[in-house]
Amino acid sequence: MKKFLSLLAAAIFALPFFAQSSTDNTFPSINLIPDSRITDQIAFGPETMDADTFIRTSFIASGATDSSIDESMAKLENHWDFFQKIQNQKSIGKDDMQETIRQVLFFIHNDIFLSYNALQTKTDLLLQKGIFNCVSATAIFMYFMKRLGIPVIPVECPNHAFATVQIDGIEFDVETTNPYGFAPGTKIELQSNKPGQKVWVKVPASNYKNRKNVNDKRLLSMIYINRIHVLQTRHQDIETIPLAINQARLQGALNSDGSLLENSPLAGEKTSAIAEIRRCIANVVVDYSGKNLNPAVLDFALLIQNKFGFDPVIQNNCDYVITSYASELCKKKQYEKSLEFIEKYKDAATRQNYLETKQITIANKLVWELDKKTFEENINSIEGNKQNISSKDYRSLISYAYTNEASRLYNEKTDGAALRAIRFSDQACIKFPSDSKIREQNRVLRHNYEAQIHNKIAVLVNSRKTSDAKALCESEIKNLGTTKILAKDLQRLSQMRN
Fold first, then answer.
1. CA gap 155, 147 in Å, rounded
2. Angle, to 10 degrees, between the axis of helix 297-308 and the axis of helix 269-287?
3. 241 backbone φψ class: left, alpha, beta (φ>0; ψ -120 to 50)
4. Residue 346 carries which DSSP code?
5. Which of 36, 83, 247, 263 has the fewest beta carbons under 10 Å from its own?
6. Model confidence over 390-432: pLDDT tens digits?
7. What is the pLDDT of residues 461-493, one digit of tens each?
8. Nearest to 397 by CA among 434, 427, 368
9. CA neighbor of 277 nearest in space, from 305, 297, 316
10. Nearest residue to 177 (alpha-carbon basis) of 223, 120, 125
11. H or E stretch at 156
């Protein structure tokens, strides 16, 4: 986050400010504890699950209640019994696995599936309404394969999922969203109502890029991930975090209390699972650091940092909140409160943002104090904070302190005030010869003072008091040293007669 520091006419150092603070600093409660139904036996158990555990876990991932899960299990058992009866009525050999797989596809599409919806990933809802997508369809298909004892492996692609089955050591793809999806690219002969006529159907084979075989738990985690996607499209980011926690737990990346596994390197799907949590959390942090700036989000971010580490997006938005809120406090002249806030949340910020925001806040505080303290107090304060502000800020503050004091001396309503201001400014020029503001002020002060003396000399000359005018000119040249206006005046006065 780029920040700009400038010394304005009023000597205010600019802290970037992006949003108004929310009047409600409460942060919503978010459950970071996984669903207790995802037991250690599931999370850390075999990657290939038995049919009952697999489908029951799919209902958990779908968000079903315990009573609803029992109803779905009973309903699916009825479908299985009906399929068995149909199979028993057909003359399909026990060894004809290809035909059995085709029959499973026909059955689930005719008796369970009704319509496709890319966002409908819940297996319990599929059983209730018949609406499916690639993930929920693959889960139901795999349940039947597991009941039949046919080796089945889920396949994940970007934006798609399907299955492969293994027959005699050979793998066949199965597009589970199509009733004719076994071995895509193969022609299948269908029964024809017209004698002598043959009807064929073929599902095109797809060469999916970046396809990979995954384990059962990864497929079921995709139910959570698809649900997360739906919530994100509705801008319900808070609700995505518990789902992200559960998908990570399901894939064995978290303990039952939501903590990361100790001394267990996260690799493969586990790394992806934790990354999903961080993405969901980052979205929430973005939401609460936007137009409704809420500093309470930083407490949440620190909690997340301790549990899962920081995502760069999270930290960038923490920087945003810290900088913006510190700026708001500075605008209210609450500099000490701003510094306390910055220190409190320094672990939520990047090191660079922490230092820059702190430096700018201290610089603003010092500027604010310039008109409230003596010159000596201001210099001591600036020098005492030299290590806490940038060198640019330090030079600007020193410059402003000296020029401010010179202006104050010049405007005093006492005899010799202007001359004292010039001598003070002369010393500042000697001390800071490269400071353009100090040099320019010195030039202006000298010019204005010489102009005043020149006008007094003119009055004396016009009053025919040339000797007095010459004495005044010589005296002020002695006071000022190098002059321009008065040197010319003295030259002219020396040529005049009293």
1. 19
2. 170
3. alpha
4. G
5. 263
6. 899 999 999 999 999 999 999 998 889 999 999 999 999 999 9
7. 999 899 999 999 999 999 888 788 999 989 998
8. 368
9. 305
10. 120
11. strand 152-157
